[in-house]
Amino acid sequence: MPFPTLLRFFSDDLAIDLGTANTLVFSRTGGIVVREPSVVVRNKLTNKIEAVGNEAKEMLGRTPGNIESVRPMKDGVIADFDITEQMLKYFIAKAHGGRRWVRPRIVIGVPSEITPVEKRAVRDSAEQAGASEVYLVEQAMMAAIGAGLPIREPSGNMIVDIGGGTTDVAVISLAGAVYSRSLKIAGNELDEAIITYLKKTHNLLIGERTAEQIKLEIGSAYPLKEQIKMEIKGRNLIEGVPKTVIVSDGQVREAMAEPIKQIVDAVLQALERTPPELSADIMDKGIVLSGGGALIRNLDLRLRERTGLRVVQADDPLCSVVLGTGRVLEDMDLLRKVSLH
Q1: Distance of CA 140 to CAs 18, 42, 201, 204, 241, Å?
Q2: Would you state the pLDDT for residue 98?
Q3: Residue 62 has pLDDT above 90, yes or no
Q4: b or e along 315-339 (b: 16 or more beta carbons within 10 Å of the residue's beta carbon)?
Q5: Could you tell me which CATH class the domain 144-185+260-318 is placed in?
Q6: What pLDDT shows up at residue 96?
Q7: What are the strands, taking DSSP E only, across 71-191?
Q8: What is the pLDDT of residue 101?
Q9: What are the helix and strand counts (H, E) for the chain?
Q10: I need a surface site. Which of 31, 98, 131, 221 has the fewest CB within 10 A?
Q11: How far is it, in rounded angstroms, from Cα 21 to Cα 214?
């Protein structure tokens, strides 16, 4: 048996959702084996990687001057090639139980509007990290498959995948995207909006971890039945000392209003550009939400009010993309149809 074939025999092909906020890895034998933040901590003096994933996120905003926290993915694409390669190596080895000599076939979900240069960067990073073959697939298509939509049928399916760096909106029929758009406004933009709002209204400086916590705990896209409040700790920008403020869900909704509006507008634009026959299908089936952004309270109500359509959340919105990517890993015929060239 030739050596590469022997390696293939022992290797375990992987599906990767390489996200701006989190990276998920699906293995053919173990299901989802890695679910960690896309964060790397590097020593600036030695260039040595100190931590990756969960351990690195714990250090965000808490590192000394010679240590920096890096998010190598920005807006769903690679911003730092070398660090992405190191991060992928770590996640691939972790998915294979620490074995570093395996050369798996890898399928990676990417935003629909990725450029040829960005595609090349993702492919190169995965190959340098140890992949024998790399296939790229659209995240929205994978989210639709992961959410269980009948994408091979000649009928319209609409998916809105709100990740950390991008929101991908797509209308899918016969295993192809009839319409797809990638918007560089998603979870991270909502966090930034909360940080900016608190600076302006309370002279309070908070970090991205706190902003994310506020978004998840009291963030909403449509008024709640009962008001909820949260105590927030940060630094007073005028006096430079620690400060605590109480913030309501209404204030956080006001903070996130503009990015949420842009996401809703992108959905409306997709509906306007959908062929009439497929529009009728979407009217029957509704819109499916996936990604971390699907968890924002009452986003479904906001979209329902604006579109007049039924809006449902995928069963496992955080994992829809990687589950769909894992499914095409098992189906070479479908993989050939949906992979980007």
Answers
A1: 13, 32, 36, 37, 44
A2: 65
A3: no
A4: eebbbbbbbbbbbbbeeeebbebbe
A5: alpha beta
A6: 83
A7: 73-74, 77-78, 105-110, 133-138, 157-162, 167-173, 176-183
A8: 65
A9: 13, 19
A10: 98
A11: 16
